[in-house]
Every structure is written in structure tokens, then in C-alpha cells.
Known about the structure:
With 196 residues, chain A is mostly helical. Chain A has a single domain, classed as Fumarate Reductase Cytochrome B subunit. Chain A has helices at residues 16-39, 51-75, 87-115, 139-172, 178-181, 191-194; strands at 122-124, 128-130. Chain A has a two-stranded antiparallel ribbon with strand order 1-2. In chain A, helix 1 (16-39) runs antiparallel to helix 2 (51-75), helix 2 (51-75) packs across helix 3 (87-115) and helix 3 packs antiparallel against helix 4. Chain B has 192 residues and is α+β, with helices and mostly antiparallel strands. Chain B is 15% helix and 52% strand.
Amino acid sequence: MAAVMYIRDTLQGYGIVSRLFHWIMAIAIFGLFALGVWMVTLDYYSPYYNAAPNFHRSLGILVLIALLVRWLWRAANVRPSSEELSPFERKAAHVTHAGFYVLLLALLISGYLISTPDGQPIDVFGWFEVPSIVQARGLESSAGYVHRIIAYVVMALAVLHTLAALKHHFINRDRILNRMWSGPARPAINPEEESH
Amino acid sequence: MKIVKTAFAVAALASALSTAATAADYVVDTKNAHASINFRIKHLGFSWLAGRFDKFTGTFSYDDKNPDASKVKIEIDTASVDTNHAERDKHLRAADLLDTDKFPTATFESTSVKSSGPEKATVSGKLTLHGVTKDIVIETQRVGGGKDPWGGYRDGFTGTTTLKLADFGISRDLGPFSKEVELTLDLEGIKQ
């Protein structure tokens, strides 16, 4: 099968850039959640007591950067058509996807605010530093509450999102999951292009 | 008869006022931060980690003729803990350490003061920390006192004590070298 690699999104599905953003960020976000839940239980003498939060902070900053770039990329691309969805499904999908952007932004910023209100920067894997912008006494504790609550809400939304995608794939047997996994279907209406 | 009663009452009132005047009441000058509550705890047994409580209030009474009649009361906002590291301060406030949501205030109230030398005293009292009230002893030294340059009168003290975290139900294991914390109170009071 001659694979047609789309960089940009089309009406039929997502290009390679959007798909990589989606799957790499999905893995990173689930990883951050698991790491976060685990690292707060560590004993002070655990060899991971400092390494785990260092990794969590660094990866979190990279996801924050990826989120912003992905949002720009999304704005600069066409939305794949969702004609196979009912009006309710379309609305629900829209709310869920918009919810991810808003909640992830709040989640990542609240995480940044746990580490930086003392004026210290965040060191990202030793590659670069993100400086402290807001210094306020006690901000780290309020940021911590927000960070924890939003993390659970994001995970709940991710479960919903996953169940919806699986339902479309296995019950409705439509292309909703495929367009994010393998990209747009090969164009069948234009046989000349296919024969390249 | 009525006149006699009144005379007694006046005399009693006068004597009450005069004793109140000799053991003067002071308010700890937290407003202009001439007071601090600092602590230090060993880190891994390698060094001392220092911190403080930024917000607290206090009052004391003190009479240099009769120091043993002194009294002191301190209220500390536990969430104001500050070790110059945001993530650590967040952890100190959390449920496995100071649990400041549940126990937002720590108080110390003296029960007895015994002179232990010139300008020195052993202050016994009850410390409530993390919801647990225990008798503690603060070794106290008077630093100085007198008229300040702005028309007021001040007296200042420094006191130290050592607390076992487990005594106050703080069970988080910080390691074998970090079971006790040294507390230093520097209090300057303004005579009211």
C-alpha cells in the first residue's frame, strides 16, 4: 500500500504532526499523572525523592510548551469533518477537546506555581531554566490543591475521551479513531494521485 | 456601714490597679517585626536546616522587680512556615507534617516562670502544636529593656527549647537525625 503521508490535517483526518502531538502528549500526560501520584508517597530516604520531582517538573514544562505549539498548529489547520457524528456527539466532543486545552493549561500552570513562588527557576533536564514569574507567600500550597484536583479531572476526561473513541471504533465502526491513528484515508476519488 | 463598704471597695480597686501597674503588659512587636520565631532541624545529620514562622502574635507581662510573676502567651499561624523553599513549605503545611488546614494555630501559654540566674528564667507552659498540648520548658534570657527613642518602653527576651516531633503527633519520618527541632523565640514587647 502506497502510504500517503500528510503533514497537515485534512477534512478526512489528522496529519502526522497532529497525530504525533496527540499520542506523545497522551503518553506524557498519563506518565506525569502516574509519576505525580507515586512521587508524593516517597520516603525521604528514597533514591527517587529528588529525581522523580525533577523529572516530573521537567516533563511538565515540555508538555506546557507542546500544548501551546499544538494549539497554534490546530488553529492553523482545517478541522477534520465530523459528519458521522450526531449533533450531540459533535457538541460533546467539542466540549471535551476544549476542556482538555483549558484544563491542561491550568494544570501545567498550577504545577509551575508549586515550584516557583520562592523565586527559584525550574530546571528542565539541565537543558534550560524557566524563571519564576510570580512570588507570593503560601501560593505553592493553593497551587498544590488546584494542581491535584485538576489532575484528577483531566484523568476523568481522558477516560471519557478514550471510551468515546473506542465506542466509535468497535461499536459504530466508523473512522473516528483511525483518523487520529493512521491519518486521513487514502484518497479514493483521485486515482491518478494514488498511482504515484 | 455603707460608707465603710465603699471605702473597702475603693481600696481594693486601688490595690488591684497598683499591682496591674507594676506587672506591666506588653504586646510583642510583630507589627514592625522586632520579634521572630525560628526553628532549625538537622538535615541528614549533615547540617542545620533553618526556618521560621512569619506570622504570630504575642503578649506578655513582666515586672523586673518580680520576674517570677511574668506571663507570656504566643499564637502562631502555622501556615506561615517559611524555609525559603516553596515546595518544602508546601510539604510542611501538608497533612503528614504540620497539617495546617486542620491545625492552623499553635499556641504557647506560660504556667510558671522561675528565675534561674541574673536576667535568666525557666518558663514552663503548655504548647499546643498539631492539635497536641504538651508541657514544655523554654530557657529564657532577658536581652534588654528600657525607653525606646520614640516615646515608648520596651523589653526583649530570647528563649530556646527543643521539641520532639513525635511528641506532637507529627509522625512523618524525616530520618534518624531529624526527630527533634530546636525552637528559638526572639520577642521584643512594647509596654502598653
